Amino acid sequence: MNNETPVQTETTGIMTPVDFTIFMRNYQDMVYSTAVRLLGNDAQAEDISQEVFLKAYERYDDLGSSPTAGGWLKTVTTNMAINHLQRYRKRWSFFSDLVHRDGDGEDSGEVEFAAPDGDFLADLNQGDRREWVDRALEELPDHQRVPLVLYHFEDEPYDEIARRLGVSLSKVKTDILRGRTALAQILMRSGTEHESLTPQR
Amino acid sequence: MARLTPEQLEQKIHAVLREQPMRRAPMSLEDRVLGEITRRQALPWWHQSFSFWPTPVRLAFLVIASGLVAVALLFSIQLMGIAGESAVQNVFQPVVGAWQTLKVAGTAIAGLFSVSIPEISSIWLYAGLAVLGGAYAVMLGLVATAYRILWQHR
Q: Taking CB atoms and an 8 Å cutoff, what residues of chain B touch A117?
């Protein structure tokens, strides 16, 4: 939740129920986090978050007092973010091509990479660590980041992710495995270069 | 070079990701959402989605749309020769009946008015209607022109 002084609706003359403003402040970080992790893009995540809250406003009579409002918002955000990627990003249509080109790993065997002895980014403070992980997620290609986020953040099982993305189960497993490997490599690289970390935002 | 099994990698990545705090939404988000709500509220009802139309208009729209669809369907059926003219007329019989009833009711109401109101020549009636129609058209034209000149280019 934002700690800064809330934006006053009176200054813009907006005729919105105060309840809805409070509702939005309660959930906006969750909605934005979900969107930005899936999309890997701040501006698009803000656009999707806006659309989600506009939908919520249309159904506010039901949602306002509903205990499942958070779940509804998360589901809508996830669906809208995935729809956005499928509709507007040409790369999505090349997913299957990518599988044929480099999809020889499946999920068996071991993954080789220069792993640190202890925890990833163990010697970074919490703020830098958050920044590096966010940035590492953004660096992943969509077809790895989206299933990875759905699996690790949203706790969705492999088969549900495959159904949602309209791809095969083996492809989801391969993409998630490759995503983890790529993420670990980015994080380790970040860990060794963290002296040069300069916040982008 | 260390080697991790997929299970070990999954556990490590899961731990790293799950300890991530939520991202803070930009402060501009609230203003954007509230601004868009206001903009949409300011739109006339016919520019808004169907759910925001007034209930009588929604009902009328549904009735008219259903009627048009039925007419188009029946016309197509007749054109394709699936059903004969008499069959189509039979289907329309209730509609024609309802129309006749409305016509009779209208004539009766008009008769009541003609009794209570002094007789007005039909020429004056048509002239009055023409003046009203003309005034409406002029007003519409003036408003449209004013909108284009004064508002649209702001």
A: 2
Inter-chain touch A112–B3, beta carbons under 8 Å: yes
DSSP string, chain B: --EE-HHHHHHHHHHHHHTPPPPPPPTHHHHHHHHHHHHHHHS-GGGS-GGGS-HHHHHHHHHHHHHHHHHHHHHHHHHTTSS-HHHHHHHHHHHHHHHHHHHHHHHHHHHHHHHHS----HHHHHHHHHHHHHHHHHHHHHHHHHIIIIITT-
| Interchain pair A16, B1: CB under 8 A | no
Chain B residues within 8 Å of chain A (Cβ atoms): 1-6, 9-10, 12-18, 20-38, 40-41, 51
Chain A residues touching B18 at Cβ < 8 A: 152-153
A residues 57-116 closer than 8 Å to B (CB): 57-58, 107, 109-115
Mean per-residue pLDDT, B133-154? 82
Q: Where are the domains of chain B?
A: 120-154
Note the pLDDT of residue A34: 96
CB atoms within 10 A of CB B148: 10
Residues written for chain A: 201
* Percent residues over pLDDT 90 in chain B: 27
Q: Distance (Å, rounded) from C-alpha A68 to C-alpha A33?
A: 18
Determine the Cα–Cα distance for residues B103 and B112; give it in Å rounded to an integer.
14
Q: How far is the C-alpha of B10 from the C-alpha of B4, rounded, in Å?
A: 9
Pick out chain A residues at pLDDT < 70: 1-17, 88-126, 191-201
